[in-house]
Amino acid sequence: MLMGATVLGKLIERTRARNHLKNYDNVKDALKPRLRAGDKTIWSIDCHLEYPVQHNSGISYIDVVFKIGKLVLCIENKINVGSASSDQLTNEYLGIVDKKEIEKDQVGMVFLVPAPDSKSQLHQNFIEKYDALKDAFLKNKDLIIIVTWQSHEEYISVVDILRETLSDEVNGIIDPIPEYARHTIKALISFIQSEFSGYYFETNLSST
Q1: Tens digit of each residue's pLDDT (9 = 90 or more) over 77-100
Q2: Within a domain: residue 178?
Q3: pTM for the full predicted model
C-alpha cells in the first residue's frame, strides 16, 4: 500500500509541476504515510479497475480510476499506441465528467503509452488525437497529460518514477522497501525498457 501510494504521489507531483492541479495539498496529504507523524486523519482513496462510463456511443471502460479527495485520476494504458482512437479518448472523458458524484471534482486524464521513437509514426498519430481532445473537450478545471512507459525527455515516465523511488529509499527519504519488492521494481524497469519483450500481444488488437 505504501509503495503504491509513493509511486502514485510522484506521478501526481510531476503532473502538478507541468499542469494546473487544484487541491494538490489535499491529495498530497492523503498519500503521505501518517504512522510516524501521528496524523489520525482518515482519508478515503478509491481505486476502480475497468471503470465503466456511459456516453452517447454506448459504454467504455477506463483501465484505472483513482478518487482521491477532490481529484479523479483516470489512467488509460496503451502498450500498443496504435490501438488508441480519438473516439475512445473523447468518450471516456465525456463519460467520466458526466458522473453526478464527481461533477465538482477535478478530472485528470492520463494516457499511458510507449515512449516515441524515430522509426514509427504511431506516436505522432496518437499526439494528434490527444491534441484534438484537449482543444475540443477539456474544461478549464480539468487536465489531460501523456505519460510514457519508457524514459523520455519530453514526458513524465513510469521508469523515471520507479528509479526515483529506488533512489529515495537508498537515501533514506522514504521508508525501506522490502527486498522482494525492490527486486520486483528492478525487474519491472528492465521489462519496460525492453519494450515488454516476451509479452505477447497483437498490434492490431484495439483492446491492448
Answers
A1: 887 656 666 577 778 888 888 886
A2: yes
A3: 0.80
